[in-house]
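CORE FACILITY INTAKE
Project code: CF-77B
Contact: R.S. (postdoc)
Sample description: multi-component assembly, two entities in total
Requested service: structural model of the whole complex
Turnaround: standard
Below are the sequence entries exactly as provided by the requester. Do not edit them.
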Amino acid sequence: MIRYIRRAAACCLLLLVALLVNAARVQVFQADALDADPANRRTTLARYGQPRGDILVDGDAVTGSRDSGQALRYERTYADGPLYAPITGYASQVYGTTLVEAAEDPVLSGTSPLLKPLWGGLTRKRQRGGDAVTTIRAGVQRAAFRGLAGKRGAVAALEPGTGRILALVSSPSYDPGRLSGTGRAVKGAWAALNADPDQPMLDRAIRQTYPPGSAFKIVTAAAALDAGAVTDVDAPTTTPDPYVLPGTTTALPNEADGCGKASLAYAVVVSCNTVMAHLGVKVGLPGMLEAVGRFGFNDARLRIPSHVAKSNFDRKMGPDQLALSSIGQFDTTATPLQMAMVAAAVANGGELKYPYLVERTTTARGTTVAQNGPRTYRQAMSPTTAAQLQQLMVDVVEKGTGTNAAIPGAKVGGKTGTAQNGIGNRGHPYAWFISWAQAPDAAQPAVAVAVVVEDAEANRADISGGGDAAPIAKAVMEAALRD
Amino acid sequence: MTAPTAADVPPPAPRLAKRRGVELSLLVCAVLASVYGYAGVGLAKSGAVPPDAARYGAGLGLLALLAHLAVRWRAPHADPLLLPIAVLLNGLGLVLIYRLDLETPHSRAAATQLVWSTIGVGLFTAVVLALRDHRVLQRYAYLSAASALVLMAVPIPFPAVNGAKIWIRAGGLSFQPGEFAKILFAVFFAGYLAANRNALAYTGRRVWRLQLPTGRVLGPIVAIWLLSVGLLVLERDLGTSLLFFGLFVIMLYVATGRTGWIAVGLLLAAVGAAAVGSLEPHVHGRVQDWLHPFASIEAGQGPGQLAQSLFAFAAGGMLGTGLGAGHSVLIGFAAKSDFILATAGEELGLAGLTAVFLLYALLVARGYRAALALSDPFGRLLAVGLASILALQVFVIAGGVTGLIPLTGMAMPFLAQGGSSVVTNWVIVALLIRVSDSARTPRPAVESGTVTPVRTGSR
């Protein structure tokens, strides 16, 4: 009997071994696959099981976390939701994250390996969510938001010398806090926001492209000067008024007077279509493409760190289309941020700094884990060209179409733009204004701004860029110069 | 044993250590480990040691002390590992149930489980005190079988709970009489096989290479076994029928050593299981779950219980999330009973789970050890049977929740929520204590010439 008992015991041992091997299979060898299974709620539970890190503007958190007591416990709150929505985006239990909430999610949610202390490999503990410090300045942001006053449009403001983004406003906006959490209210808010014809969740400043209209003439002027198509800004050109588009019988008209054979300086200041269209054709498609590329056009990989919609300048077109494209029409489109970059490049002596929105990310205790700094995007134009264009843009504000943007005591350069919109141009035009401002005692301009207002309440004859958009740009620049 | 020396002076009899002190110190460790786990849950969930941690420790300690005193008084030679392992597993079970209670504020189970554990320890003490010699049980083999069948039949008129008709509900308490039938069957098998094992093994006809016993000898035991399994199938308690079958096979093998029968038995069982598995919808579902635990996810219905259980084990990884820091409550229904091991796996990790398995293995091994040391066939078979009940229970349910075998409802001994199970397991440990006491008691020296009765039990 002893032998049989021993054998039975051996059988039990076999069962034990089977259990242990199987447990090791599930807990060690298949663990990663099981952990990553989308149906496994643990990742989600851990994510919302602790307060989310904050997004900071001027050192103050514009976000918060609320303990909802639900399974997905901490819900995002926003101190000034609509104002900062184009920066923060939303962080929803149901609909995920966007913008900075998405781009810096590993730090904010505490999963980033950067947050772990040196001995972090030993602990499985999830780190507290870190913070994202933005480059936004609250005063500038508020000025832009107040300036748009709920009208459909957007503002982007940059510090030309560094590329720091000072303001990003999209209007009309929404409160991203409505999407935090779970439940019927959140689903209802999502449906309502998506159904809204004003598209409040669209971040117009970086995700919407508009035809830039005459504001694009700065780019064309830079290309012409750099390519040697114009050597003296004050010398008369050969462009007749009206200018017949090459290869067609279509005559391009001007809104302004005195454009026939006008100099580049005059053409920029009063916004002559004919001169600029002809210059674009003179530079030629390869030269124009090279020039616009230096400003950031056709770059689909621009990140601030959120993705920025690609601003477009067609790569293949005929000379007539090139002529139209060179005055910011045809298929040329740009985001407000892109046009702010154009102004910033001029303001910074031709050197375009890469725009960035997140200054640094920190641990919950404030230790920096990642730092962004100024870096050069491209040399958009030569310093000489930049200096010439600066003077032309100052002239626009002092005696041209942009007088509404003038700030007493400060050096302000600008350019208006108005782009037709809708089928047969029957929609209200888009009003553009791009500008930069330099304090009297400062070595270089402190701010570059692009403002676009959709549905400008003005007819085409008025230079609506100067009428609708310039006052907003002025308010933004004043706020930026104030401190 | 001891040969007379040259001087013809009998040497002092070798003192066999009783090891009660070892048992006591291990018990202290077991209680402290449980209290530590209890405090750990509180610290993880609310950042503070639960206010009643001391009371909980004192309660568990008092139970352990009571059991220890009973053993010290009436079974002084018993194996010193059995009781501490039982206390540790029971304490850990209470901690896990308490921990899950925190997630389900509307259905608390820890307090009830503590009451049942107290009853279990009470019965343990009663068995140790009242049963002075395990051989008494041999007389009641048929009575055991009869009462086991009655116990199993009792729940049939009661309404089914979660698909199984194995519950009796009276007042607020529910009881699973079938649990207790396990012990009675072990007693019956041991008694019957001990009395008839020679007749079973050596009489009868030989068919080809297989020695078949006469129907007169094998008949009663097969009849009773078939009856019990039939009842369980009626009640849809598949785990227990699997357990009874395994128990029957092991004990028959140990009694007769006939491998051929075991092979035939296993073959028949495999055929039966395959038939039931493909025909009976309930069982078929379980087998499908086992083969495709993630089918419900692919079908867009979210993870099923087994998938959730596997997620929990995986989340634990090597070292576990720590007590109170896991999400095994996602398993939902039966998280505290059948799936309690998933909580252990998630929060204690593979390391903790291995420790738990080894505790069970040690418990089983000590049972087998007692069986080897005993001299009477009934005692041996009883010890093997009781240890095998524990081993099979652990394998069936642990294998089920980790996806090794199809899941069948069964309680993890001592860990899982379930009063009848805890009480039954305490009685099993009491019987093992009694058996091991007999096994380790020094036998009277024959050379001394005088026969000293070891104990004044009836024989």
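Facility notes:
- Chain B has 15 helices and four strands.
- Chain B has a mean pLDDT of 84.
Invoice: internal transfer
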